[in-house]
Amino acid sequence: MLTEFTTAAAIENLVNATLGADASARHEYLLRQSLHNLVRLAKAEYKVEVQHSVGKVVQVLPTDATLVL
Fold first, then answer.
1. How crowded is the C-beta side of 43, counted as CA atoms within 13 Å?
2. CA-CA distance, 14 to 32, in Å (whole number)?
């Protein structure tokens, strides 16, 4: 959960730095949600990349090998 807090804080800092104090609530909301969606997309892409890498490793393991995590 600490990662989410750090991400949320970073997003708030970006929103404040980008839009400044005079921004409307609508503009803040739109930028904040866009950044949250970008983080979600990056997490999904990372998950797919890790799954692909694990798939490559599993393919080259001997059939009688034991994978220990």
1. 9
2. 9
- For residue 47, being part of any structural domain is answered with yes
Q: Is residue 12 part of a domain?
A: no
Report yes or no on 14 lying in a domain.
no
At 19-66, the pLDDT tens digits run 999 999 999 999 999 999 999 999 999 999 999 998 888 888 787 777
With respect to residue 66, please indicate whether it lies within any of the assigned structural domains.
no
Query: The pTM is what?
Result: 0.73
Q: List, as one string, the DSSP characters of 8-28.
A: HHHHHHHHHHHH-TT--HHHH
Q: How many residues does the chain have?
A: 69
- Report residue 69 CA to chain centroid gap: 23
Domain that holds residue 55: 20-60
